[in-house]
Design a protein that fits this description.
NAD; translocase; electron transport; NADH_UbQ_OxRdtase_chain2
Length: about 350
């Protein structure tokens, strides 16, 4: 009975979360957008459904941070349009950046993400940021683009550097999210459709990686090494997704980065483009480190015959199969490779059409 009630509450929270995003999308008034944003926040706390002390701590931290940002957001909305309206516009932008975990308001994000279950962690990295992004797209003014550009570059650099010394997979994904949020915010100052396309592609890849990590409970890089002997097909799929998230050519995520680079160069942002390329290469290091921990390390107790035996056992066992959704998304990253081999001109033409 209690389990059934818990499922009903969770389903209601999911419905409320989706309704909040729809309210933000369809509203033309800031107060209604604020209501939708708060509906998403409070329903997400229910979705987190903490069971351990660490998860409760993460939920409380998330609530305090979001409540503080909401107070600042509400204060910026209730002030009338006066000579100092730009100050309150900047305050509005700041509150949204806190909710998006963009630098320099990012320090809470890795710890909160680390304390969550896998599914809520996947949501906070992707879906939960959509509401604030939509409001930000409607409030972005020409005068605030300089601040947004500085925030975007800072987020990309801090996200790339912060993930270098991490060994816990959820923290690595959190810093990856901060870095990719920098890319998204920078593209918002140039082209909002391109920015949303970038964020959607990032979200699909991230959710697939998080689902695979949850499937094998890979909380630590060393655990991913253990899984490489149990589920090589899952490791291969995850490897494709991780390298695609890092923008390694010629995978699908690389085309996402090329599209962003082209927009920046077309808008004469050469210096910023160089900084973003360097941050992307830095973040690619810890993506490659995950790949190294997953596939290129071996223990002395794992001989080739043992690996072959476990691989054969894996193919007949139902406990180490790859999640179908992950395999579909991972397979889709082969399409750009085939396209570049078979019809490179067509791929270039499609990229020109999108930008």
């Amino acid at each position: 009975m209690m389990k059934k009630l818990s499922t009903m509450v969770l389903n209601f929270a999911l419905l409320a979360n989706i309704s909040g995003l729809l309210l933000i999308t369809l509203s033309n008034h800031y107060i209604m957008m604020f209501v939708g944003l708060e509906l998403m926040t409070f329903s997400f706390i229910t979705i987190m459904s903490p069971t351990s002390p660490r998860q409760v701590e993460s939920s409380v931290k998330y609530f305090i941070i979001q409540a503080s940002a909401s107070i600042i957001l509400l204060l910026s909305l209730i002030f009338p349009s006066t000579q100092i309206s730009m100050i309150f516009h900047a305050t509005l932008i700041m509150s949204l950046l806190v909710k998006l975990a963009a630098a320099p308001f990012h320090s809470w994000f890795p710890e909160v993400t680390q304390g969550m279950k896998w599914k809520p962690a996947a949501l906070i990295l992707t879906w939960q940021k959509l509401g604030a992004l939509i409001i930000l797209s409607r409030t972005l003014m020409t005068e605030s683009k300089t601040i947004m550009t500085a925030t975007a570059v800072t987020s990309a650099v801090i996200g790339a550097i912060g993930g270098l010394n991490q060994v816990q997979t959820r923290k690595i994904m959190a810093y990856s999210s901060i870095s990719h949020m920098g890319w998204t915010l920078l593209l918002f100052t140039i082209s909002q459709p391109i920015a949303m396309t970038y964020f959607v592609v990032y979200s699909i890849i991230t959710v697939s990686i998080m689902m695979t990590m949850e499937y094998h409970n890979s909380n630590h890089l060393s655990k991913m090494h253990m899984d490489s002997f149990l589920s090589p097909w899952t490791v291969a799929a995850t490897l494709s997704l991780i390298l695609s998230l890092g923008g390694l050519p010629p995978l699908g995520g690389f085309l996402n980065k090329v599209m962003a680079f082209k927009e920046m160069i077309n808008n004469n942002l050469s210096v910023i483009t160089l900084i973003m390329i360097l941050s992307s290469l830095t973040s690619l290091f810890f993506y490659l480190r995950i790949s190294y921990s997953t596939t290129l390390t071996s223990s002395s107790q794992h001989t080739l015959s043992m690996l072959t035996m476990r691989t054969k056992k894996m193919t007949t066992s139902s406990t180490h199969k790859t999640p179908p959704f992950t395999m579909i998304i991972a397979s889709s990253h082969i399409i750009p490779i085939l396209g570049l081999i078979i019809a490179p001109t067509m791929v270039v033409s499609l990229m020109n059409m999108t930008s």
